[in-house]
C-alpha cells in the first residue's frame, strides 16, 4: 500500500544515493523473484491439469494452488519489504566449510511475505519468521545479534525513498543513529479510508502479544488507540503462519462490534496475505433469527445475565419424562416388552451422563434397542448389529423416544419460554424475580416464532438452547474485539465456539457501553470459559494526541475509576478546539467546521447522538457538502472523506479530524452515556473539534 512521502531526506550516510539505488535494485530483484514464484505455481496447475487423481483431490489441489497464487500476488502499491537487519557475522549463517567463519554481516530484508530466488536463497524474510523477531525487539541493551536495524520510507507507488539506521552493536554500534522518525511519520500520517496494517512499525510491547503462544488465551486491556485491534489482526496472521494446519481445521474468526467496524478493518488481513479468516459481528455469528425488536435496558440486562443459561437448561431438561406405557416391539410372531420402570431407569441414567440433549435422544434409542436385544438373546435368539439397528429404528421404539425425550428446536423452545408465563415461572423459579420474568417476555402477542420481534439479546438465548441441544463445531481460534461489551450470555456463545481452543480477548473496560457490560475482566473471562487467561495491558496511545486524550481522560474517574489514561506518543499543538455557541448557530458552526476540514487532507467524522444525526446529515447535504451517513452505508469509510457517524457506531473507528456535536445529548441518550462520550472523544488522529450550545457534562468541565 502506498506510504505517503515521509518527508525524510535520503539517508545522511556517505553516498546516500548509491545506498538508495542498491536498495531499489534489491526491491526490483525481489519483485521479479515473486513474479517467478507465482508463475511457477500457476504453471504447475496448467502442467498437471486434472490428471493427478480423483475429482475431489484435484479440486482440493486446484483450490490450494489458487490460494497460493492469490497469496503470491504482488500488490503494486505494497512495498515488498520494510526493514533490514544486519546481523553480526556468523549469527545467522553457519561457517562455510571452505572459507571458515563469516566475516561480513548477515543481511536480511524483512517484509510481508517470504520471497526467494530460483536457487531458494531468501531475498525477503517473512516478518513472522522466528528470526524476524529481532526487527521488533532488539535494543542497544539487548541487540539480539543485530548490528544495524534499517527501516525504509516509501513514496507514492511504493517507491523506496528513504531509510534510517539504528546502530545497535558492532563497529560504530553506540546505540546511535536515527531511529523513530519513520515511525513518527507513520503514526502521524493523515488517515484516510479503511485501516491499514502496522507490520513495519509494530512496537515491542505489541509484538510480545502478537507472538504470544497459541495455547493460552490472551486478554488485552488497552486504552483507546493503543493498538488492540491492530494487535489482534497481526496476531491472527502470525498464528496462521506458525500453526496453519492446526488452525485451518476449525478456521479462525475475528468478532467485531458492528458491520461498519468490520468494513473498516477488512483489508488488513488480506494485505498480510491472509484471505481465509471469518470477520463477523457477534450477532451474525449467532444468527438463528432475524432481529426486528429491541429490549429495554432492564430486559437486556436480565436476558444477558448468565442466570438465563440455567433457566433455559431447566426448561429444556424438563422435557424428558418417563413413559406411561410399556414399549412393545414385534419381531415375527413374538413381542418384546420393556416396562415403564425399566425405561425410567434408562432415562435417569442418560440424564446424568452429561451428553447434549440431542445426543441423549439418540442414545436413548440405542439403550432401548440394547435392552430389547438382551431380552431376545436370553430367549435364545441370535442377534447382531443389523438386529440392533432394526430394533432401534422400529416404529414403537421411535414413538417411545419421541414421547419420552421430545425433539427440541432452539427457536421454538425460547419462544415458548418467553411467551408462556407459567412455563417461564417453572423454569425461572428461584432464579429470576417475578419482575424480571415479566421483563423478559416477548413484546406483543406473537402467534409463532416467525412473527416474533426478536432482539439481539434473544439471539444469545436461542444460541444457548441450540448449544444444549447440539454442541456447535469449535473454531481453531477466535479474536474478540471490543469484548468489554459482551453480555455473559454472548460470552458463553463465544466460549461454545472456542471449545478447548484459545481466544484473544481485546477491549477496554472504560469503553463499555452496553447495559450488560462486564465490570472487570476476570468476570468476563469466566463467562468466556477462560478464567486462566493471561491478562496484559497496553497503555501507549498511538492514535490520539496528548491534548485530546488528556481532555477525554477527565471522564475516567467517573466511568472507570481504576483505569489510567493512555500515554500519548505525541503532542500536537492546536489539536483540540471547543466551541460554545448559541443553539441557533450550532448547525451552521458544524457545517463550517466540516467545510474547513474538507479543505485539508484526511478523513473527517462528524459524530452526534444517534437521534440528531439524520437532521445533521441532511443539513450538510443541503449546504452542498459531500457527506455520507454511516447508518445507511457501512462501507462509507472506504469511499467518502466526510462521514456522519451516530455515536453508537463510533466504536473502534478513527478519523483524521473528528467533529463532535452536543456532547450533552450523547450522554443523555443512554445510561452509559459518559462511557459513550469517552469513545467518541477518542477517535481523532489529528484534531478534535467539540461544538456545543448545551452545557458540557460537569466532569468534562471540571478538568
Ligand atoms: N505500532 C504502531 N505503528 C503505527 N501505528 C500504530 C501502531 N499501533 C497502533 N497504531 C495505529 O494507532 C491507531 C489505533 O490502533 P487500534 O485501532 O488498533 O487501537 P485500539 O486500541 O483498538 O483502539 P480503540 O480502543 O479506540 O478501538 C490505528 O491507526 C493504528 O494503525
Automatic annotation (TrEMBL):
The keyword GTP-binding does not apply. ATP binds at residues 222-229. PROSITE patterns: UVRD_HELICASE_ATP_BIND (PS51198). Residues 201-545 form the UvrD-like helicase ATP-binding domain. InterPro entries: DNA_helicase_UvrD/REP (IPR000212), P-loop_NTPase (IPR027417), UvrD-like_ATP-bd (IPR014016). Keywords: ATP-binding, Helicase, Hydrolase, Nucleotide-binding. This is HelD family protein.
Amino acid at each position: 500500500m502506498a506510504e505517503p512521502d515521509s518527508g525524510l531526506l535520503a539517508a545522511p550516510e556517505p553516498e546516500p544515493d548509491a545506498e538508495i539505488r542498491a536498495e531499489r535494485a534489491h526491491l526490483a530483484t525481489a519483485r521479479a523473484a515473486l513474479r517467478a514464484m507465482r508463475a511457477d505455481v500457476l504453471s504447475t496447475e496448467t502442467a498437471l491439469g486434472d490428471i493427478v487423481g480423483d475429482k475431489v483431490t484435484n479440486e482440493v489441489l486446484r483450490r490450494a494452488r489458487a490460494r497460493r497464487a492469490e497469496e503470491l500476488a504482488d500488490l503494486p502499491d505494497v512495498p515488498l519489504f520494510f526493514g533490514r537487519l544486519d546481523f553480526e557475522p556468523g549469527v545467522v549463517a553457519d561457517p562455510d566449510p571452505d572459507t571458515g567463519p563469516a566475516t561480513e554481516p548477515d543481511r536480511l530484508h524483512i517484509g510481508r511475505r517470504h520471497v526467494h530466488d530460483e536457487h531458494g536463497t531468501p531475498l525477503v524474510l517473512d516478518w513472522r519468521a522466528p528470526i524476524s523477531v529481532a526487527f521488533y525487539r532488539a535494543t542497544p541493551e539487548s541487540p539480539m545479534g543485530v548490528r544495524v536495524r534499517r527501516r525504509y520510507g516509501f513514496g507514492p507507488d511504493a517507491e523506496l525513498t528513504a531509510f534510517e539506521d539504528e546502530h545497535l552493536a558492532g563497529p560504530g554500534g553506540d546505540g546511535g543513529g536515527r531511529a523513530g522518525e519513520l515511525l513518527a511519520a507513520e503514526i502521524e500520517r493523515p488517515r484516510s479510508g479503511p485501516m491499514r496494517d502496522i507490520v513495519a512499525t509494530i512496537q515491542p510491547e505489541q509484538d510480545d502479544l502478537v507472538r504470544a503462544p497459541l495455547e493460552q488465551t490472551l486478554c488485552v486491556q488497552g486504552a483507546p488507540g493503543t493498538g488492540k485491534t491492530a494487535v489482534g489482526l497481526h496476531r491472527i496472521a502470525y498464528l496462521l503462519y506458525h500453526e496453519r494446519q492446526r488452525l485451518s481445521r476449525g478456521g479462525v474468526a475475528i468478532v467485531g462490534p458492528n458491520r461498519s467496524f468490520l468494513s473498516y478493518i477488512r483489508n488488513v488481513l488480506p494485505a498480510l496475505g491472509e484471505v481465509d479468516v471469518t470477520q463477523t459481528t457477534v450477532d451474525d455469528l449467532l444468527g438463528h433469527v432475524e432481529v426486528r425488536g429491541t429490549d429495554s435496558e432492564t430486559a437486556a440486562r436480565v436476558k444477558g445475565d448468565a442466570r438465563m443459561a440455567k433457566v433455559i437448561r431447566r426448561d429444556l431438561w424438563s422435557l424428558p419424562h418417563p413413559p406411561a406405557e410399556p414399549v412393545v416391539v414385534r419381531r415375527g410372531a413374538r413381542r418384546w416388552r420393556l416396562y415403564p420402570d425399566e425405561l425410567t431407569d434408562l432415562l435417569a441414567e442418560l440424564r446424568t451422563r452429561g451428553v447434549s440433549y440431542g445426543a441423549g435422544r439418540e442414545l436413548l434409542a440405542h439403550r432401548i434397542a440394547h435392552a430389547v436385544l438382551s431380552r431376545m438373546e436370553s430367549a435364545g435368539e441370535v442377534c447382531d448389529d443389523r438386529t440392533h439397528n432394526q430394533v432401534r429404528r422400529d416404529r414403537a421404539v421411535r414413538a417411545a423416544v419421541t414421547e419420552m425425550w421430545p425433539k427440541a428446536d432452539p427457536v421454538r423452545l425460547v419462544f415458548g419460554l418467553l411467551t408462556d408465563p407459567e412455563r417461564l415461572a417453572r423454569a425461572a423459579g428461584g432464579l429470576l424475580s417475578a419482575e424480571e420474568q415479566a421483563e423478559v417476555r416477548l413484546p406483543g402477542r406473537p402467534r409463532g416464532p416467525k412473527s416474533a420481534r426478536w432482539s439481539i439479546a434473544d439471539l444469545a438465548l436461542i444460541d444457548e438452547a441450540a448449544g444444549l441441544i447440539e454442541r456447535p463445531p469449535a473454531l481453531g481460534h477466535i479474536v474478540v474485539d471490543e469484548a468489554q461489551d459482551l453480555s455473559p450470555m454472548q460470552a458463553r456463545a463465544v466460549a461454545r465456539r472456542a471449545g478447548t481452543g484459545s481466544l484473544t480477548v481485546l477491549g477496554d473496560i472504560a469503553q463499555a457501553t452496553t447495559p450488560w457490560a462486564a465490570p472487570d475482566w476476570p468476570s468476563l473471562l469466566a463467562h468466556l470459559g477462560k478464567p486462566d487467561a493471561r491478562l496484559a495491558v497496553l497503555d501507549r496511545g498511538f492514535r490520539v494526541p496528548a491534548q485530546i486524550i488528556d481532555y477525554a481522560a477527565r471522564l475516567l474517574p467517573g466511568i472507570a475509576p481504576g483505569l489510567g489514561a493512555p500515554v500519548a506518543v505525541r503532542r500536537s499543538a492546536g489539536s483540540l478546539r471547543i466551541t460554545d455557541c448559541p443553539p441557533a448557530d450550532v448547525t451552521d458552526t458544524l457545517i463550517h467546521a466540516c467545510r474547513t476540514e474538507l479543505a485539508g487532507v484526511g478523513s473527517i467524522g462528524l459524530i452526534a447522538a444517534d437521534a440528531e444525526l439524520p437532521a445533521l446529515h441532511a443539513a450538510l447535504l443541503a449546504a452542498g457538502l459531500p457527506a455520507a451517513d454511516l447508518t445507511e452505508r457501512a462501507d462509507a469509510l472506504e469511499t467518502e472523506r466526510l462521514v456522519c457517524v451516530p455515536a453508537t457506531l463510533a466504536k473502534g473507528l478513527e478519523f483524521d479530524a473528528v467533529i463532535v456535536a452536543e456532547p450533552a445529548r450523547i450522554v443523555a441518550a443512554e445510561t452509559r452515556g459518559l462511557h459513550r462520550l469517552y469513545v467518541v472523544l477518542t477517535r481523532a488522529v489529528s484534531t478534535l473539534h467539540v461544538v456545543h450550545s448545551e452545557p458540557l457534562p460537569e466532569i468534562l468541565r471540571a478538568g
